[in-house]
Amino acid sequence: MTATLIDGKAFAAGLRARIAAQTAALKDRGITPGLAVVLVGEDPASQVYVRSKGRMTVEVGMNSYEHRLPAETPEAELLALIARLNEDPAVNGILVQLPLPAHMDEAAVINAIRPEKDVDGFHVLNAGRLATGQKAMVPCTPLGCLMLLRDRLGDLSGKSAVVIGRSNIVGKPMAQLLLRDSCTVTIAHSRTQDLPALCRGADILVAAVGRPHFVKGDWIKPGATVIDVGINRIDSGLVGDVDFAGARQAAGAITPVPGGVGPMTIACLLANTLTATARANGLPDPEGLTP
Ligand SMILES: NC(=O)C1=CN([C@@H]2O[C@H](COP(=O)(O)OP(=O)(O)OC[C@H]3O[C@@H](n4cnc5c(N)ncnc54)[C@H](OP(=O)(O)O)[C@@H]3O)[C@@H](O)[C@H]2O)C=CC1
Ligand SMILES: Nc1nc(=O)c2c([nH]1)NC[C@@H]1CN(c3ccc(C(=O)N[C@@H](CCC(=O)O)C(=O)O)cc3)C=[N+]21
Questions:
Q1: Would the annotation count 201 as a binding residue?
Q2: Domains within the chain, CATH numbers bracketed
Q3: How far, in Å, CA of 276 to CA of 271, rounded?
Q4: Alpha-carbon distance 150 to 177, whole Å?
Q5: Mutation probe of ligand 1 site: the residue of 122, 190, 198 with most atoms within 8 A of C-beta
Q6: Of the listed 118, 120, 203, 228, which one is catalytic?
Q7: What is the pTM of this model?
Q8: Residue 120: half-sphere exposure toward Cβ, Cα within 13 Å
Q9: pLDDT tens string for the chain (291 positions)?
Q10: 120 catalytic, yes or no?
């Protein structure tokens, strides 16, 4: 079998079109969503993401505010900027691009963002709310993966899901969302024993490892749905965490890299900004953008 390609790029474009329509409806009521993105330092990959986030924010009709600080900025200065953005009524969402320079305490910086404006969903309150089933801001990459999975599979309940990776920004929240949808979830990591055998039991396999071509084709259960979160830059270009050519022979459906999860992450950032704006104005959550 050759797997169906899950076209994240096309899905994300459709999602952005729906966000643009709902943004236009808010603007008719005098409300324009605003997203502030803060970039500390000059990491070239981060600069590319920040530029494309800014472009897409404007394309859907929102206001984009970019703040670039030198790498050697003292943490107190970044915290002061966050405090200003927290108080600014024109700013509904705040994203601080990660990773931060080594002299900064990432958790302290993220937790300084008002949880209601934390469109990354990384604040400890949002993580706790997601884990306990309360209304939260949900991390963009896992939210995008969930949307692709539901679109492909419909009801996920009872499916066996393996998430490789336990980071706070991808693996853990991904597992929470799958659990909420009643999957039977296993979280794998660098200490997991016999990962290939574990993966062979998975109806849904999400790879968020950060190692090129790490997941092999013969780890895939025939017909499984494979979501490749990995973004790895190697000499031949951008590749995922899954050996795409091998996995494609066994999987039922698979996301490519590029063109899979990456574009969904940015679309979900805009979705979260719209959700945050609606909530800040006492309006109901926008249709179809929250889990
Ligand atoms: N498409 C998108 O929008 C996004 C893509 N990414 C990409 O996703 C990938 C993961 O990102 P992130 O979660 O931040 O990465 P982290 O480095 O924070 O986490 C990687 C995880 O993989 C696990 N791991 C590492 N080696 C192995 C191994 N040999 N066997 C099993 N597990 C292993 C680690 O285990 P342990 O905890 O034991 O060390 C860890 O839990 C990266 O390629 C990143 O670039 C990230 C964010 C957004
Ligand atoms: N606070 C914070 N929030 C993030 O969400 C965040 C972050 N920091 N730091 C870095 C990671 C990475 N990330 C990506 C977003 C889009 C693509 C994306 O659009 N990728 C395209 C290709 C882009 C290219 O060609 O380089 C694709 O996969 O098709 C990838 C990766 C968000 N991250």
A1: no
A2: 29-127 (3.40.50.10860), 140-262 (3.40.50.720)
A3: 9
A4: 11
A5: 190
A6: 120
A7: 0.98
A8: 21
A9: 799 999 999 999 999 999 999 999 999 999 999 999 999 998 888 888 899 999 999 999 999 999 999 999 999 999 999 999 999 999 999 999 999 999 999 999 999 999 999 999 999 999 999 999 999 999 999 999 999 999 999 999 999 999 999 999 999 999 999 999 999 999 999 999 999 999 999 999 999 999 999 999 999 999 999 999 999 999 999 999 999 999 999 999 999 999 999 999 999 999 999 999 999 999 999 999 999
A10: yes
